């Protein structure tokens, strides 16, 4: 496994952030206070079937330190306001021995959290950001490649 691949798999950022933020018309919630051992299955179980996360595990983004350690925060996507409201009713619910706080969030907050970690250790993030930039450019090219405008001669 290459160094870049290893970092991508540990950070929970770069490509995952790009994919997470590319989903339009979604309601974003932030979860704070997660046990460091919590994974996607734990979070989905905590939210329960009445609060389905868009895309299941693909609709979760765990925030990690540059060295891969979990911060105890995650973001979750919901398809509509009603589902997000149902999830917000789980605010201060227990996951293991921890109570979990849920807050409304935005794509800007997700980007801000990522930016804070990048500023904390820019050298560790350089390969991640490079890979993320390349992936994002590819997505933008694919999205807009069919929208050529004719230039009058």
Summarize the model shown:
By secondary structure, the protein is of the alpha+beta class.
Care to describe what's here?
Helix 2 runs parallel beside helix 6 and helix 5 runs antiparallel to helix 6 (122-144). This protein is α+β, with helices and mostly antiparallel strands and 153 residues long. It is globular. Mean pLDDT is 78; it is low at 1-13. The protein contains 6 helices and 5 strands; from the N terminus they run ααβαββαββαα.
Q: What is the number of helices?
A: 6
Ends distance = 51 Å
Instruction: Please write the string of helix (H) and strand (E) elements.
Output: HHEHEEHEEHH
Principal-axes geometry comes out as globular
Reading side by side through the largest sheet, how are the strands ordered?
Answer: 2-3-1-5-4
Provide mean pLDDT, rounded: 78
Q: What share of residues are in beta strands?
A: 15-25%
Q: Pick out the low-confidence regions.
A: 1-13
Number of strands: 5
Largest β-sheet summary: 5 strands, antiparallel
Helix content: 40-55%
Query: From the alpha-carbon coordinates, what is the Rg to the nearest angstrom?
Result: 17 Å
- Give the class from helix and strand content and strand pairing: alpha+beta
């Amino acid at each position: 496994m290459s160094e870049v691949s290893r970092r991508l798999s540990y950070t929970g950022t770069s490509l995952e952030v790009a994919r997470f933020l590319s989903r339009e018309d979604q309601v974003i919630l932030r979860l704070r206070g997660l046990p460091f051992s919590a994974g996607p299955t734990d979070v989905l179980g905590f939210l329960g079937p009445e609060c389905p996360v868009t895309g299941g595990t693909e609709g979760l983004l765990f925030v990690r330190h540059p060295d891969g350690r979990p911060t105890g925060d995650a973001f979750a996507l919901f398809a509509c306001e009603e589902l997000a409201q149902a999830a917000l009713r789980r605010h201060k619910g227990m996951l293991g021995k921890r109570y979990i706080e849920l807050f409304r969030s935005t794509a800007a907050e997700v980007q801000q959290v990522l930016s804070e970690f990048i500023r904390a250790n820019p050298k560790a993030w350089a390969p991640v950001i490079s890979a993320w930039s390349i992936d994002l450019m590819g997505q933008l090219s694919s999205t807009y490649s069919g929208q050529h405008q004719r230039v009058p001669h």
